[in-house]
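agent> Task received from the user: take the single chain below, predict its 3D structure, and emit structure tokens. No templates, no multimer pairing.
agent> Plan: (1) validate residues, (2) run structure prediction, (3) serialize to tokens, (4) report one or two observations.
agent> Step 1 OK, no nonstandard residues flagged.
tool_call: predict_structure(input=
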Amino acid sequence: MKTIGEVAAELGIEAHVLRHWEDVGALTVRRDGNGYRSYDDNALEQARTVLKLRRVGLSLPEVTAAMSPTKSAAQAVVRAKIAALESEVVQRQQAITFLQHTVECRHRYLDDCPDCATFVREA
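)
tool_result: status=success, residues=123
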């Protein structure tokens, strides 16, 4: 069994973050006889999972849903996040392509370049 401070130190986060995760329902922690949070192996693993899901971009409501006991509900949240990330990758790649062109463009002003104008008109 570990205290909130020990778990926070192990995960490299602040104790208030663990409290917040518990408050919003993303983490379940037992209390000892004095009302102190007591992290067993399951709670520690759950906290690690929450942290990993947060680090890959899920919001706390998404984390809670992704940790749902219903596998289909969890998968739906994860699939939606994958789709959003894939869309973001496409948008970022388009931004890189545009910026690379502007760096290499022979025109002094972007308005003078037909290729830059084409990039600008794209959604």
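agent> Step 4: summary for the user.
The helical segments are 4-11, 15-23, 41-55, 60-66, 71-104, 114-121.
agent> Done.
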